[in-house]
Prior knowledge:
- The protein is an alpha+beta fold.
- The chain has a 6-stranded mixed sheet with strand order 1-2-3-6-4-5, covered by helices on one side.
- The chain is globular.
- The protein has 2 helices and 6 strands.
- Strand 4 (61-68), helix 2 (74-84) and strand 5 form a beta-alpha-beta unit.
- Helix 1 packs parallel to helix 2.
Amino acid sequence: xxxxxxxxxxxxxxxxxxxxxxxxxxxxxxxxxxxxxxQTQETLDYIDQMLAKCGTDKSHLLSALVWIKSFxxxxxxxxVYAEFFKKDPPARSTVQVxxxxxxxxxxxxxxxxxx
Length: 115
């Protein structure tokens, strides 16, 4: 089975599909001045849109890696995340990092299977 790249840019693809698995690049919010709740919701909504574009949805997520700028924001991020994944959440790791691109507060990377 070949490799399908979605929304290819000069340095990365937004998603790559291979062998029935969707790899979605780290996604982040556009509202850079917003708090962690808004940024988390925007990021998860974008992931939802990209998964649909790839032919799957959040119920088919296998794993998520969350990078967060500050664990002071963990509870607020986690509340939005839990609401988004009321049923069948993926396996998840959360890591605090010193700095994220564009100074966002949260970035999320996911892997899913095709619907």
